[in-house]
What we know:
Elements: H1 2-35, H2 42-77, E1 91-94, E2 97-99, H3 102-145
Antiparallel strand pairs: 1-2
Helix pairs in contact: 1-2, 2-3
Amino acid sequence: MLDQIRHYLRLRKLQEKRRRARAHQISGTWSALDKMTGPGEQASVRRVVLEGENEIGRIDFEINQLQTDYLLEQARKYLIPVPDAQGDEWIEVAFGAWALPPETLADLRAQIRKERKERWEHWQMRLTLLIGFGGMLIGLISLLKK
């Protein structure tokens, strides 16, 4: 449970960082366009756009790595088969780093949810029986006290 919260907070932080980088890129593009006086200054606008795209791409890479690492950790925890490291499911994202594509992440996430649900249903049935048994005991004790 704690690892889910930790993952959620890291993901939210990266998503907010991406949103700020995108807003900064847009404002930088508009300010560069406002300062543009001649056709030769188009390079400054392109530079601002490329810098923003590089920053957003780097953050997207971090998000993808975070998601991949977390889901692989959860899959191993629940004994769900993970894609083979030598398989075709992996994509190279940057600088020799590998990650799972969104479709494979979605499938893995669905399998993890299914396994969690099955485990919870296992305990939920026993918990319901235990609560019912406890209620029966309380009723029996109150009946015997009278």
